[in-house]
Design goal:
Number of helices: 18
Largest sheet: 2 strands, antiparallel
Number of strands: 2
Protein name: Putative voltage-dependent calcium channel type d subunit alpha-1
Number of domains: 3
Keywords: Calcium, Calcium channel, Calcium transport, Disulfide bond, Glycoprotein, Ion channel, Ion transport, Membrane, Metal-binding, Phosphoprotein, Repeat, Transmembrane, Transmembrane helix, Transport, Voltage-gated channel
Strand content: under 5%
Order of helices and strands: HHHHHHHHHHHEHHEHHHHH
Subcellular location: Membrane
GO molecular function: high voltage-gated calcium channel activity; metal ion binding
CATH architecture of the largest domain: Orthogonal Bundle
CATH superfamily of the largest domain: EF-hand
Family: Belongs to the calcium channel alpha-1 subunit (TC 1.A.1.11) family.
Distance between the termini: 43 Å
Mean pLDDT: 80
Structural class: mainly alpha
Helix content: 55-70%
Length: 433
């Protein structure tokens, strides 16, 4: 069942169903016949039943804990639940007014969001947007300060302008008499909507009169020629500087994440998790040690070795990895991921491995003081002579392989009666290892 729900054919079928469901939702129009509405409702029930079947199949394949451990699966479950509530209220109790039916119908449209998890390029854009939020608060703070300063100045300059002139852009919905109203006027001006008319309505002309409730009365002119400098400077700062900072921050993050895919980054973790799940379908967090070399040859550099890497070369690289080997012949997910990242970034990989591990353990304890000792021992095992690691296993495998090749060559040379250079050849092979 796990192989079925994780296969490409199953994903393609879901993609077609989601797109068909979205097109069905777009077929609704105002004043449609009752027969047409009934046909759309029947199609909605069919789609809901199919997606509910998807939920059941994934529950059977992943189990409850693993299924709800994925945020996309939780999102899909909420969509299915909302669809069933929609059917219940619209079909079983069509006249109920307990809750708005249109709210639950929004869940059908939200199913299209699930497609965002399928494409690598779309995931990169989403990751860029999320990473940009770390810098956007500073830009937003700058905009808030700009709006606050200009709103206060606008209240002082144009707060007494009357609202009775029908030809003026200053009215009861668009004025500087209160701070919230002033912010709304500035927001409208920042979008470029008729900001010139608002500026002209604030100039010191005969048509611009003060409010009746003001001290000056409605006969005195109440505008200011500073409105030209006020609105033009505000529009330039917002449209050409501040707003473009948002775009600059997002583009800078996108350029950093896509500048060179050979640079190890968070986007490589998806590939590692996806290929690991092929060898760990029950999500136990461990795989057989014999599958490690195959796994890393499937993962492209810089995290893995790549499919073009020969098997013997991959085994040699695994010798330098100090992943602990469990008693049942398996290796842990955390230990494997940490080992490949450490090797790729060359973090404390030179010199004696035990000394390098102790130095790395000290650095981790200093930076991440709350790291549990169990997790630390799992990813960076302490020095011990009796511990069996993946590196020692593959070192033994290569020694045996060299010995078999050496023995085979010796037998071939013995049959051809050539000079015996077996000892030198064996020493050269072991020295190379």
């Amino acid at each position: 069942m796990w192989w079925f729900v994780t296969s490409q054919y199953f994903e393609y079928a879901l993609f077609v169903l989601i797109m068909t469901n979205t097109l069905t939702l777009a077929m609704k129009f105002y004043g449609q016949p009752d027969s047409y509405t009934y046909a759309l409702d029947v199609m909605n029930m069919i789609f809901t039943a199919v997606f509910a079947l998807e939920f059941v199949l994934k529950i059977v394949a992943f189990r409850f804990k693993n299924y709800f451990g994925d945020a996309w699966n939780v999102f899909d479950f909420i969509i299915v639940l909302g669809s069933f509530i929609d059917i219940f209220y619209s079909e079983v109790n069509p006249g109920t007014n307990i809750i708005s039916i249109n709210f639950f119908r929004l869940f059908r449209v939200m199913r299209l969001v699930k497609l965002l998890s399928k494409g690598e390029g779309i995931r990169t854009l989403l990751w860029t947007f999320i990473k940009s939020f770390q810098a956007l608060p500073y830009v937003a703070l700058l905009i808030v300060m700009l709006f606050f300063i200009y709103a206060v100045i606008g209240m002082q300059l144009f707060g007494k302008i009357g609202l009775e002139n029908e030809d003026s852009a200053i009215d009861r919905n668009n004025n500087f008499q209160t701070f919230p109203q002033a912010v709304l006027v500035l927001f409208r001006s920042a979008t470029g909507e008729s900001w010139q008319e608002i500026m002209l309505s604030c100039l010191n002309t005969e048509d611009v009169r003060c409010d009746k409730a003001s001290e000056e009365g409605d006969q005195a002119p109440c505008g200011s020629d500073v409105a030209l400098i006020y609105f033009i400077s505000f529009y330039i700062l917002c449209s050409f500087l501040i707003i473009n900072l948002f775009v600059a921050v997002i583009m800078d993050n996108f350029d950093y994440l896509t500048r060179d895919w050979s640079i190890l980054g968070p986007h490589h973790l998806d590939e590692f998790v996806r290929l690991w799940s092929e060898y760990d379908p029950d999500a136990k967090g461990r795989i057989k040690h014999l599958d490690v070399v195959t796994l890393l040859r499937k993962i492209q550099p810089p995290l893995g070795f790549g499919k073009l890497c020969p098997h013997r070369v991959a085994c040699k690289k695994l010798v330098s990895m100090n992943m602990p080997l469990n008693s049942d012949g398996t290796v842990m997910f955390n230990a494997t991921l940490f080992a490949v990242v450490r090797t790729s970034l060359k973090i404390k990989t030179d010199g004696n491995i035990d000394t390098a591990n102790e130095e790395l353990r000290a650095i981790i304890k200093k930076i991440w003081k709350r790291t549990s000792p169990k997790l630390l021992d799992q990813v960076v095992p302490p020095a011990a002579d009796d511990d069996v690691t993946v590196g020692k296993f593959y070192a033994t495998f290569l020694i045996q392989d060299y010995f078999r090749r050496f023995k085979k060559r010796k037998e071939e040379r013995a049959s051809q009666k050539e000079p015996n250079e077996s000892t030198v050849a064996l020493q050269a092979g072991l020295r190379e290892l």
